[in-house]
Amino acid sequence: MSPRFGLITGCGKGIGLSITKKLLIENKNIKLLGISRTINQNIEKIQKEFQNRFIFYENDICENQIIHKLLEREQKKYVPFSFAICNAGVRSRNSIKKSNLDLYRSIIETNTISNINIAKQVIESNLNENSKCNILFISSIVGARGFDELSTYAVSKSALEGFMRSSAVEYGNKGIQINCLAPGFVESSYADSFKKNNKKLYEWTISQTPMRRWGKCEEIADLALFLISEKNSYMTGTVIYSDGGWTAK
Fold first, then answer.
1. Which of 72, 94, 117, 225 is surrounded by the fewest CB atoms within 10 Å?
2. Class level of CATH domain 4-188+216-248
């Protein structure tokens, strides 16, 4: 298989960490650029284990100009990205009444605008080089379903899905595939505190999930790996749900 150069954001924990590990372990031909707001022991371990294939930068994706220069520099060193996984994001649980417009702007800036900034640059670089690319946004079932006290998060994810659909249509004949993966509730880094501090809400999420459990980060990672692989050759503009059956109800 030919070498592939890829990007992942939010790779230090949860779903992003699982995807990063699986990509590097299962694909010897991949060189991966990781970006996260902070470095931690998980990232340091990956750096040591895959020092020739994992490049890491500690940056907030909201620093759009810095991210632009970083991506531009790295792509000049290697080749345009074969794939990009836009995973970094923030959650906000608050009532609509208590969520002021500044909070909406903040969540949208991180979850939507920053990811659009990355996608636009990846698309442009691949168009300039006439090369193919697979872009994957990590969305959420919250983008498609109504949830109490999650309006800021819902707006940011549904807007991201709207951009995904339009860009997939616009660049479908240019070798650019763009999709969203929307997990349900997953046992990521926040799961333990959620179960402890929101016991009734946790029990409600289980009751709403036909499979009667939360998903595992590894399960989401397995699906993500297919979606950015060369095997995914005819899917674009799609939101893939991995939610234990929640959205089927």
1. 72
2. alpha beta
Which band of pLDDT confidence, cut at 50, 70 and 90, is reported for residue 197? confident
Report d(CA 77, CA 29) in Å as an integer: 17
Q: Which residues of 186-220 are buried (b: 16+ CB within 10 A; e: fewer)?
A: bbbeebeebeeeeeeebeebeebbeeeebbebebb
- Rounded to whole angstroms, the Cα distance separating 221 from 20 reads 8
List pLDDT tens digits, range 153-190. Answer: 999 999 999 999 999 999 999 999 999 999 999 998 77
Exposure class string for 107-142: b at 16+ Cβ within 10 A, else e? bbbbbbbbbbbbbebbbebbeeeeeebbbbbbbbbb
pTM of the model: 0.96
Sketch the domain layout of the chain as residue ranges: 4-188+216-248
DSSP label at 228?
T
Report whether 220 contacts 242 (CB < 8 A).
Answer: yes
- Residues written for the chain: 249
How much of the chain, in percent, has pLDDT values that exceed 70?
100
Active site residues: 153
Beta bridge partners of 84: 7, 135
CA dist 167 and 165 (Å) reads 6
**Locus of tokens 């907030």:** 60
